[in-house]
């Protein structure tokens, strides 16, 4: 009898304990380390210890000057705000393009849906770095998209809206950045939306129609509210990583596009200012904690529903 | 799903036409860069965007591109280890979340498991690096290099693997495992003989997913790499930063071709298996009185 | 799996002994002090609506739940603390739970292989099982290649393969449609009796319980209300709940006006009952009289029964439902209460067929009623 309990306990402890321990050590603890570094002093090679022995007494050396600089320097606030702005714009575009896309996918003939899904997944499996790089080619002078936009004189309108610096210069602008981000994150919006819409019971629409609702009304009163979970999941999957994006702003962005991911990178790699980089990271985490909590809550709820 | 045509928006035929054009435009958007990459990998011109003629010289150059090939080999190794270890940790985590409804610290656990999915990689990379540096100061190891890159990829990979395996586990009929126990299988045997075969497909897709993720990763690798451990994405990234480079196009085309073949083959096989299955079920229902 | 004999001769007849079992889910008692004695070779049914605790009790027998209190003893062996894979008990699941990645043959062999049975013995036993359920030529098929009825037979063969001391059936016919259900019921019972295994089944379907089981336990809210053979439960229900739960019944409340050792008289609102046996009670107490619809005769003329003016009442036919082999009449009585009367359609046509609006007399014999005090 004890045998059973021991086995169960041992198995259970291992199954929960191993990943738990791993996550605590490699995910949770590092955040605490970042916090510590943000209040440390930068030494020659690395950061100085905050707890030291001096003259026989324990001394705690905390420096808040990084946080101070953060509040003083306008640039940091502008960059945080700019990152959130671009992330929000990307999310909106992804939703605007992705929702109808997922909708039509989910309402297509059942037999071709797996093929449609595979066609969405295929680019996802191909290197994202390479595809972002490809947009460099498309938007640069004589690139295909460049050719189309300039021949149609659409670049004039884009310059008018201050989205590109000058007609003909499509690269390294807010325009190229947003295109790159929307392109990269579109599958992240499509997949949860599609999975949600595909599972919807179509008979609900039949019932609505029977009760007198036009298809348009039925869409807004029934389909959209039911897909709320998918919308939120997709939006979080796009918004949160976009805030801290680095590669896309680096390859497709320019001097106009302030993104906090690049600031963090530069502080760390170019300035070698680890405390500053850590501070930037801490503030970034604080900024995304609310959307992160929302995402987590919806994940948990979705799991509960599935269980 | 019913095959009924439901008038979704304005009218059946308009909706179909609108839908098809939206889907078509969307797919064009998704595939445009890929097509461009492939086409320009054969461009015989020093100026990247100006088409001069067809050539295979970039592919030939690739064969002697030590930096790129070295990066590729390293990336493949790291990706392989990442995929295997992510699968193990991810499956454990998925089991913990699905089988054990209540345990202390479950919310924290579930939060930690899925957070890497959305967290900006710069934060993950920075925090992991700083921690490893502290550990290195205290214990003398680990050295920044392939192993530290592996840790970072494993963190990300585990999150994805957990999501995939968990989704499959939740869809399993719990009575199957109970039946196995009822027939005399001890818990470990239940796992090996019943659970594992049934989630095998999910395990495979989790492996492939984490493999691809690791192969493609830039930010984590940048933070966590050391001297001599430059992965292929880092090579591509440094070249891409400087401008357009046809050697990158050549590598891209090769990767795209491989991925495309693999995905299409896999999809066709799965679709065929599904068709066989449905036929068999229908046949059985007709057989019986 | 060694059978140990017990010293108590009374207990020797009891194969499965469930003693005062309680299952408490954080304050909610799913099973509330249940005790049952089940004899060897019986087919015993736990009957009740969903939430009554029958499935929890079954799972405790299987070992998937641990009793909060009480004991379960099978063939002299206390099952406390024994995990499901060590119990000499096998279960047929409601969803059949056939392993989709294994063939029919491997599904049936699964349990035998876990026991370490040598290959040739396994083959022998599996072949015997396949013959028993008549699925010999489907041995190499996978579950998804079988129909619902065939899948059920595989599930049955799989749970009988190890020759368990006790077999558990969880809503065995729930997944089948009506026609298939009737055929399968008989087949199932035949196979079980042929093998001679003791069976406990769980169902919410009265018909299933009454046709298949040799004894039934009616459960509600975690408690056993009555245990007995199907006819006992039907004809002699112990409580109002049981009378109402099984089949259809006319329940009339009234007062006990005369109490004699050989008969009693109960005054109800619309009629009075002359019950041809004595009951334990006192004059003046409130009782309910239960009469089953098929025990009531219906005719236009006032019946000339021996106990008149008792055991008859006049009413108007408010409703009638034609079921082909019988018709159910709803008779509206003076107070407005409805009396349900069921009549077999013995003749094909009748000139004076009773219909809506007709006045008719209902009457019954003094042995037709059951007097209930609970």
Describe this structure in words.
The complex is a heterotrimer of chains A (307), B (289) and C (374). Chain A has 307 residues and is mainly alpha-helical. Chain A folds into two domains: 2-60, no CATH class; 74-306, MetI-like (MetI-like fold, Orthogonal Bundle), CATH 1.10.3720.10. Chain A is 75% helix and 3% strand. Chain A is globular and about 85 Å long. With 289 residues, chain B is mainly alpha-helical. Chain B is globular, with a radius of gyration of 24 Å. Mean pLDDT of chain B is 86; it is low at 1-10. Chain C has two domains: 9-241, P-loop containing nucleotide triphosphate hydrolases (Rossmann fold, 3-Layer(aba) Sandwich); 248-372, OB fold (Dihydrolipoamide Acetyltransferase, E2P) (Beta Barrel), CATH 2.40.50.100. Chain C contains nine helices and 20 strands. Residues 1-12 of chain C have low confidence and may be disordered. Chains in contact: A-B, A-C, B-C. Chains A and B meet through helix 1, helix 3, helix 4, helix 5 and helix 8 of A and helix 1, helix 3, helix 4, helix 5 and helix 6 of B.
Task: Break the fold down into its secondary structure elements and pairings.
The complex is a heterotrimer of chains A (307), B (289) and C (374).
Chain A (H helix, E strand, L loop, with lengths): L1 H37 L12 E4 L2 E4 L4 H8 L1 H34 L5 H13 L2 H12 L4 H8 L2 H7 L13 H25 L4 H8 L4 H12 L1 H16 L3 H6 L7 H11 L3 H33 L1
Antiparallel strand pairs in A: 1-2
Helix pairs in contact in A: 1-14, 3-8, 3-11, 4-8, 5-8, 8-11, 9-10, 11-14, 13-14
Chain B lengths: L11 H29 L16 H7 L2 H34 L6 H13 L2 H19 L6 H25 L3 H9 L4 H30 L2 H6 L7 H11 L3 H42 L2
Chain C lengths: L8 H5 E12 L2 E12 L3 E5 L6 H9 L6 E6 L2 E2 L10 E4 L11 H11 L4 H14 L15 H13 L5 E5 L7 H18 L2 E6 L2 H7 L2 E6 L2 E6 L1 H6 L4 H6 L4 E10 L4 E5 L3 E4 L10 E6 L5 E3 L12 E11 L3 E7 L5 E7 L14 E5 L5 E4 L2
Parallel strand pairs in C: 3-8, 3-9, 6-7, 7-8
Antiparallel strand pairs in C: 1-2, 1-4, 4-5, 9-10, 11-12, 11-14, 12-13, 14-20, 15-19, 16-17, 16-19, 17-18
């Amino acid at each position: 009898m004890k045998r059973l309990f021991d086995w169960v306990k041992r198995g259970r402890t291992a199954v929960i304990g191993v990943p738990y321990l791993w996550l605590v050590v490699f995910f949770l603890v590092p955040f605490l380390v970042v916090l510590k570094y943000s209040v440390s002093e930068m030494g020659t090679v690395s950061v100085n210890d905050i707890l030291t022995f001096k003259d026989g007494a324990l001394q705690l050396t905390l420096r808040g000057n990084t946080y101070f600089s953060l509040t003083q320097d306008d640039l940091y606030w502008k960059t945080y705000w700019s990152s959130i702005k671009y992330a929000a714009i990307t999310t909106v575009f992804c939703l605007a393009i992705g929702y109808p896309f997922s909708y039509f996918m989910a309402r297509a003939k059942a037999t071709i849906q797996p093929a449609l899904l595979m066609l969405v997944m295929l680019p996802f499996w191909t290197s994202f770095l390479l595809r972002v790089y490809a947009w460099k080619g498309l938007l640069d002078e004589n690139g295909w998209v460049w050719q189309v936009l300039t021949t149609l004189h659409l670049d004039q309108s884009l310059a008018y809206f201050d989205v590109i610096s000058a007609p003909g210069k499509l690269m390294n602008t807010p325009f190229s950045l947003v295109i790159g981000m929307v392109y990269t994150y579109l599958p992240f919006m499509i997949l949860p939306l599609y999975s949600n819409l595909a599972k919807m019971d179509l008979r609900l629409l039949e019932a609505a129609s029977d009760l007198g609702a036009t298809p348009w009304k039925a869409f807004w009163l029934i389909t959209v509210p039911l897909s709320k979970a998918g919308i939120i999941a997709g939006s979080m999957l796009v918004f949160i990583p976009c805030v801290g994006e680095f590669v896309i702003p680096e390859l497709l962005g320019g001097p106009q596009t302030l993104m906090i991911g690049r600031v963090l990178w530069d502080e760390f790699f170019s300035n070698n200012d680890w405390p500053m980089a850590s501070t930037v990271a801490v503030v970034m985490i604080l900024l995304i904690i609310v959307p992160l909590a929302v995402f987590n809550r919806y994940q948990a709820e979705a799991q509960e529903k599935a269980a | 799903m019913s095959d009924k045509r439901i008038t979704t928006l304005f009218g059946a035929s308009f909706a179909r036409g609108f839908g098809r054009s939206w889907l078509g435009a969307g797919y064009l958007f998704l595939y445009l860069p890929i097509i461009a990459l492939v086409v320009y990998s054969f461009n015989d011109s020093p100026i990247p965007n100006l088409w001069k003629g067809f050539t295979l010289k970039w592919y030939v150059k690739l064969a002697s591109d030590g930096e790129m090939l070295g990066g590729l080999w390293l990336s493949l190794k790291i990706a392989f280890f990442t995929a295997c270890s992510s699968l193990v940790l991810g499956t454990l985590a998925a089991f913990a979340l699905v089988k054990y409804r209540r345990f202390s610290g479950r919310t924290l656990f579930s939060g930690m498991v899925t957070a890497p999915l959305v967290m900006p990689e710069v934060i993950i990379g920075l925090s992991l690096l700083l921690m490893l540096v502290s550990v290195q100061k205290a214990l003398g190891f680990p050295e920044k290099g392939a192993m530290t890159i592996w840790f970072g990829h494993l963190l990300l990979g585990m999150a994805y693997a957990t999501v995939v395996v968990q989704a499959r586990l939740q869809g399993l009929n719990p009575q199957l495992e109970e039946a196995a126990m009822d027939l005399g299988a001890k818990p470990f045997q239940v796992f090996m003989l019943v659970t594992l075969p049934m989630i095998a497909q999910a395990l495979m897709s989790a492996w492939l997913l984490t493999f691809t993720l690791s192969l493609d990763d830039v930010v984590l690798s940048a933070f966590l790499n050391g001297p001599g451990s430059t992965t292929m994405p880092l090579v591509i990234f440094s070249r891409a930063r400087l401008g357009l480079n046809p050697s990158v196009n050549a590598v891209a085309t090769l990767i795209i071709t491989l991925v495309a073949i693999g995905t299409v083959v896999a999809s066709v096989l799965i679709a065929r298996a599904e068709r066989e299955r449905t036929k068999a079920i229908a046949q059985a229902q007709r057989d019986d009185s | 799996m060694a059978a140990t004999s017990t010293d108590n001769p009374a207990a020797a007849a009891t194969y499965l002994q469930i003693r005062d079992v309680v299952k408490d889910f954080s304050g909610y008692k799913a099973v509330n002090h249940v005790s049952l004695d089940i004899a060897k070779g019986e087919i015993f049914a736990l009957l009740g609506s969903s939430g009554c605790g029958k499935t929890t009790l079954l799972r405790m027998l299987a070992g998937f739940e641990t009793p909060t209190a009480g004991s379960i003893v099978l063939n002299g062996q206390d099952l406390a603390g024994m995990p499901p894979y060590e119990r000499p008990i096998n279960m047929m699941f409601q969803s059949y739970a056939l392993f989709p990645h294994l063939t029919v043959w491997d599904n049936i062999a699964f349990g035998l292989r876990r026991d370490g049975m040598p290959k040739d013995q396994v083959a022998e036993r599996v072949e015997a099982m396949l013959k028993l359920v008549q699925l010999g030529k489907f041995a190499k098929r996978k579950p998804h290649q079988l129909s619902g009825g065939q899948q059920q037979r595989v599930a049955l063969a799989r749970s009988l393969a190890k020759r368990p001391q006790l077999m558990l059936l969880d809503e065995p016919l729930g997944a089948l449609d009506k026609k298939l259900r009737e055929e399968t019921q008989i087949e199932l019972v035949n196979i079980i009796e042929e093998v001679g295994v003791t069976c406990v089944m769980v169902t919410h379907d009265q018909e299933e319980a009454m046709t298949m089981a040799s004894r039934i336990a009616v459960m509600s809210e975690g408690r056993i209300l009555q245990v007995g053979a199907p006819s006992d439960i039907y004809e002699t229900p112990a409580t109002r709940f049981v009378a109402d739960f099984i089949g259809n019944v006319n329940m009339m409340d009234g007062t006990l006006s005369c109490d004699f050792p050989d008969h009693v008289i109960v005054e109800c609102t619309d009629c009075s009952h002359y019950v041809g046996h004595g009951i334990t009670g006192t004059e003046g107490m409130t009782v309910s009289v239960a009469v089953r619809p098929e025990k009531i005769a219906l005719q236009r003329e006032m019946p000339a029964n021996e106990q008149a003016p008792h055991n008859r009442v006049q009413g108007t036919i408010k409703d009638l439902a034609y079921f082909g082999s019988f018709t159910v009449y709803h008779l509206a009585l003076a107070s407005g209460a409805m009396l349900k009367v069921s009549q077999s359609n013995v003749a094909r046509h009748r000139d004076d067929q009773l219909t809506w609006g007709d006045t008719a007399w209902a009457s019954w014999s003094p042995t037709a009623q059951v007097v209930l005090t609970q």
